[in-house]
Structure formats: structure tokens, C-alpha cells
């Protein structure tokens, strides 16, 4: 049985995972301090805990690895952030990049053909894998490797930047499997690819 590959990220109402200049300041969710609601943070934690392997593109890897390896040691870290940081460090990860030469924290680096390696990993027995990063997920999308999409839509318009969805060669038919509203008007929609 094949592993399931899930692409999920916070996304603006107009479809971007980062605003122009790779700005993700809008993605925190509710409130003037841009912090995620506790409920939404818990949802992301549960998604990571349910995954057996995380696949990262270079930019997302750099963002995550700049904070989470020591996120549990920050003086203002909440209990949820401490748990998330520890889970993130221990989680098996694969980073796809031709420009990074070293990774750490239970991570393996792939510098070759990302699509071939993702297809190989997906064909293995095992639990779900999550994929993040626009370029990497876009390549997997075009290759027909993504089984589920999870969009956590934040009610903000940024007008441009890095889109969640990439240009495709053909349609992908999806089936809605879950909707959920979080505090601050953040809406989760999960879709599975129809086979």
C-alpha cells in the first residue's frame, strides 16, 4: 500500500503562502500580535504528529530550522510551542535542495531529482508524509503525487507573492473531506484527490 502525501500550509484568501518578498507575517492568524490561535496551533501539531515523514523545500526548511530547533528553549515559549519544537526536532525529515550542503535534526538532504525521490518514498509502505514549500509541492503536484490538500485560509489579501497552487498540465479533480472554522475567521478546507 502506498503512503499518502499531504500538502498543507497557511494560505491567504487570495491564494498565496507568502506575500511578495517571502513575507509570511500575515500567517499568524488572529489578533494584532499575529499569533496562531491555540486551537489552530494544536491542529498543526496534530497533523505533524500523525505524519511519519516531512518533506521540505529549501525556503521552508530555512524558515523552520531557524526557529524550531531551539523553540522550546525560548523564555516565552508556551507549553504547546515546547511540545511542537521537540516533535519537530525528532520528526524524520527530508530536505530537497541543490544549494544547501548540510542539514541537522533528524534530517536527510536530497540534491538530485526531487520528483523521483518523492515518488520512491510515496511507493513505500508506511504512514502519511507531509510536503511543504511552493516549489517542491508544485513539482509533486504536476507529477500527480499529492493525495490530499489542506488549506488553512487566513482572512487576509496580500495581492501577490508565492501561490499555493502551481500551474498544472491538466485538471486535478478533488473531493472535499473536511471544513472547519478556527478563531479569527481562519478556515480549514481539506480535499482528497479523486482517483
Automatic annotation (TrEMBL):
Residues 3-188 form the Bacterial bifunctional deaminase-reductase C-terminal domain. One of its GO terms (biological process) is riboflavin biosynthetic process. InterPro entries: DHFR-like_dom_sf, RibDG_C, Riboflavin_Biosynth_HTPR. Transmembrane segments: none annotated. Coiled coil: none annotated. Pfam families: RibD_C. GO terms for molecular function: 5-amino-6-(5-phosphoribosylamino)uracil reductase activity. This is Dihydrofolate reductase. It comes from Sphaerisporangium siamense.
